[in-house]
Amino acid sequence: MTALTAPQPLRAPGFGRLVLLHTRFGILETVRIPIAVIGNLLFPGLALVFFVVPNAQVADDPVAATSAVAQLALFAVMSTFLFTFGAGVAEDRALPFDGYLRTLPAGVAPRLLARVLTGLLFALASLVPLLLIGGLLTAATVDAGTLGLGALVVLAAALPFLMLGLAIGYRLSNKAAIAVVQLLLFPLAFAGGLFLPPQLFPGWLESVSQWLPSRAGRDVVVETVTGVESYPLALPVLLGWALLCTVLAGLAHRHDEGSRFR
Asked: Which of the four, 169, 199, 213, 253, has the lowest number of CB atoms within 10 Å?
């Protein structure tokens, strides 16, 4: 006679496994739209090829070339964060599946952390072509330790844009979020000195730019990789924007929870 055994209860996956599953899903979902990945990978590198490499005065100067690569590196990460967390979150909120996921016992934390990890992975990937082009076609040069530290500082300097993206994504509709991200990205990049060095700005723009997160982040990153000192308020301005955007992201998430899940 065969003994019957009680079925084993299903065990819910742990928090870490949920994060990894959502991260894998996010990566697969992104790479299924190749143009989004290709554009993010190529645009900063093409900007370097068209605007820096032909300019021998910049490309042949180690400090100027390294600064140019650093500026465009921040732009690449800034762009990734704004689109991933701004347009991406707003797009997900428009899907019925998103509402279902947010009602599950695991809560929103695993998916949010997975989205952050996915954004960081694509942000780091966007730096690879830029660094290769800068290393091969310009006089930009840094040692391995400075390169690693510079990559970490770029990610940290782009934190305000990650939080700003979340604030936009949780507060606005899909179409509105895309428009707002596009309206913010290039003006902030230009006024922050990511396309042209701030030394070429007129006096009024130089003064205004010092209060922008893009300019503060640019100077902090350039100081890290070249040793050229940033303006005195760069770090306080960057931290202030990071705090402000974090508060805005928290308020936007709370508003979304209150309006959709009451």
From this structure: 199
In sequence order, the 6+-apart residues with CB closer than 8 A to the CB of 191 are 205, 208, 209, 212, 214, 215
Q: SS3 of 77, please?
A: helix
Residue that the structure tokens 């055994």 belong to:
5
Q: Examine the pLDDT at 1 and tell me if it is beyond 50.
A: no
Other CB atoms within 10 Å distance of the CB of residue 184: 18
Domain boundaries, the chain: 18-260
For residue 95, give the DSSP letter. S
DSSP 8-66: PPPPPPPHHHHHHHHHHHHHHHHHTSHHHHHHHHHHHHHHHHHHTTT-HHHHT-HHHHH
pLDDT of 220 higher than 70: yes
Q: What contacts 246, CB < 8 A, 6 or more positions away?
A: 163
* pLDDT for the residue numbered 123: 87
CB 47 within 8 A of CB 79: no
Q: What's the per-residue H, E or C state across 163-205?
A: HHHHHHHHHCCHHHHHHHHHHHHHHHHHHCCCCCCHHHCCHHH
Q: How far is CA 36 from the centre of its chain?
A: 14
Nearest C-alpha neighbor of 69 from the set 77, 216, 230, 160: 77
